[in-house]
Amino acid sequence: MSTILTISSLTHDFGGLRAVSDFDLKMEEGQLIGLIGPNGAGKTTVFNLITGVYRPTAGDIRFNGASLVGLPSHMIAQLGVARTFQTIRLYGDLPVIDNVSLGRHFQVQYGLTASLLRLPSYYEGEEELRRKAIELLELFGLADQAYEDAKSLPYGRQRRLEICRALASNPKLLLLDEPAAGMNPGEVQELMNLITWVHDHFGLTILLIEHQMRVVMGICPHIVAMDFGQIVARGTPEEIQKDPRVIEAYLGTEETEAA
Description:
The chain is α/β, with parallel strands linked by helices. Helix content is 42%, strand content 24%. 35% of the residues are buried.
């Protein structure tokens, strides 16, 4: 396995608040790592730094050896980094198939001129987009709802569609930000099965933020725990569950509780 993501001494400040401090992470191709921590620990900030939403105050992020620092989000996506968000960000009034096609649109071969003049290359490109979208939807069990508005799907299926759309960009690294948020127990189990299947079927490297310990402990062979912007523990699910620093971060000390 080769290293696909290297994060070194990553630090980010919001004014006088240090949201992430000296964060280090190395991911090998094909790894599935869970990133956990209480609210405000800095997990989503790490995702925003990787994907170019924020520029770090200090440190470096390297993807396949190239630094991502300073690159706009669309260029980072083109390099092979895709993500989902805590709150679903689908185009609810567009059909399911269009949501997936949009995830792949930067890979089309025709240019602006072909699009404006409706040249044959435009129609060929659009047909290829739809064909690829249908292939993905079939894999995700959503092809039967391809022409329904995305907002009409049940919540669990909207989450499934969001992951499907992320994969339409043909990423090498997938960042999942709390995909189980708002799900009922049955949907959570389906999600766990889906992430495991995506990881195995596509051979993807996946970094997963999740508050539901059932998900992280159930599917992630390796876990990184954060608190107050810093990594406090790394290890297997068994090691993380017993780590006193993780227990303190989630439950607090007796002094914290008394305060």
